[in-house]
Amino acid sequence: MNYQLAVIPGDGIGPEIVEQALKVLDKIGQLYDHSFAYEKLLAGGCAIDAKGEPLPNETIEACKKSDAVILGAVGGYKWDTLPGHLRPEKALLGLRGELGLFANLRPAIIYDELKDACPLKPEIIGDSIDIMVVRELTGGIYFGERGRREGKMGKEAFDTETYSVGEVERIAKIAFEIAKKRNLKVTSVDKANILESSRLWREVVIEVSKEYPDVALDHLYVDNAAMQLIRNPRQFDVIVTSNMFGDILSDEASMITGSIGMLPSASLGENSFGLYEPIHGSAPDIAGQDKANPIATILSIAMLLRYSLNLEKEAQAVEEAVIKVLKEGYRTGDIMSPGKTLVGTKKMGELIVDTISKQ
Ligand code: IPM
Ligand code: MG
């Protein structure tokens, strides 16, 4: 089969990690007889520099025509002082919104090989931790009305959190469908003791849960959820939550896996089209130094193969190769521990590519 992929390397470490991910995809193409055509597109800080805006229209249009989008990371010190609508991060939100990618899947799995890199005690980690964070991605405070105005104590700023029944219904359904294929448990995270939007969230999740009698549902307030993730992460299977809470909790969950450099993500809409990116940012402090961990992006490729192209065998080949390379003791700096072999971004990519070819 021929697939057309939109590729947005972005800023900072984005280009170097995406380069490794595309090498992996090329290898999969060779071995399994697929051809992947890439269209490289600008978004983020590099688009601000080249085109004067973070998300040029031609990038959105090209993404819409593709089978799926691969994104590295956007942002950097250079653009940090620009006004909100011109910041590189605006490109991410624009893509998510314009492409209708309301469901963000962030799997946090602790690999046996990386248990050393996990900051939790062995008795808390137990045999394994495997959590799927399902984050709502096109609503809530990220997309609500915001602004500045005069207040009683001088100028004030506001951001608003809004959720509709329809928005919560569709993300809750995704969470329950995923739980059906996993361990039949959904934890909905909100702040329903305070926020009206969370009260509606909880009501709707309970309503949707009635269609899934086999899936157990519980609710946690976000502060408690943050604590439970450290206290007893094994209680979680699928976590479904709002845009902002999902942003925060997925970073926390990523540390359980050893490093934020390990966590991939898939952003999906109504059909199989999706955008795939690591959950980490552009890490400008280590950009261009061959230090970044490309695994989160490579694992995002596995998610792309699985969710957008329906190529499960190929997805597993990528995941197995990552595990094998870790088993052989190769580590980038972020997951390094004594006795292991330190490698750079490129080498890690090459090792994974070579391992795929050997399977
Ligand atoms: C993420 C990132 C983004 C977000 C930023 C870069 C806008 O933190 O994907 O988690 O907040 O969604
Ligand atoms: Mg984040």
Description of the structure:
Helix content is 41%, strand content 21%. It is an alpha/beta fold. It has two domains: 205 residues, Isopropylmalate Dehydrogenase (3-Layer(aba) Sandwich); 138 residues, Isopropylmalate Dehydrogenase, CATH 3.40.718.10. The strands form three sheets. Strands 2-1-3-12-11-4-5-10-8-9 form a ten-stranded mixed β-sheet, with helices on both faces. Strands 6-7 form a two-stranded antiparallel ribbon. A two-stranded parallel ribbon has the order 13-14. It is globular, with a radius of gyration of 20 Å. Bound molecules: 3-isopropylmalic acid and magnesium ion (MG). 3-isopropylmalic acid binds next to helix 4.
CATH homologous superfamily heading of the largest domain: Isopropylmalate Dehydrogenase
pLDDT below 50 for ≥5 consecutive residues: which ranges?
none
The chain-level structural class is: alpha/beta
Total domain modules = 2
Q: What is the second-level CATH architecture of the largest domain?
A: 3-Layer(aba) Sandwich
Strand order, sheet with most strands = 2-1-3-12-11-4-5-10-8-9
Estimated share of beta-strand residues: 15-25%
Q: What Rg is obtained from the alpha carbons, in whole angstroms?
A: 20 Å
Order of SSEs: EHEHHEHEHEEEHEHEHEHEEHHEEH
Report on the biggest sheet.
Answer: 10 strands, mixed
Number of helices: 12
- Give the CATH topology of the largest domain: Isopropylmalate Dehydrogenase
Count all strands and give the number: 14
What proportion of the residues is helical, as a percent range?
40-55%
